[in-house]
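go over whats below:
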Amino acid sequence: MKKTAGRFTIENGVLEGPGNYMTEKGNAKLDSILSGNDASFNTMVQFGGQRDIEMLVLVALQTDYAGWVGMKQVQGWFGTERPGLKQSDKL
C-alpha cells in the first residue's frame, strides 16, 4: 500500500523523497530514526497517537525537509551558504 506525507512516499518497502535533501541530510535523519536515536521521532511515537510507523517516518522526514528548505531559503535571502550547500540546488 502506498503511503505519502508531503514529498515522501513509501510503497512496497521503497522510500522516495527529494534526492538533494536525502543526499545532504535525509539519509542521516533516516539512519537516526532507524537506530532509535532520533528524539523528535521517538517523541512522536510515544505521544503522537499514530501507530503506523511507516507514516510516522514519512511525517518525520517531511517535517525535517520543511526545515531544511526554509534554511536554504533564508541562506539565499542573506547570500550566505554553509559548506556543502550550493545556491544552485533545486528545491
Summary: The mean pLDDT is 88. Residues 3-78 form one domain. The CA atoms of residues 58 and 84 lie 25 Å apart.
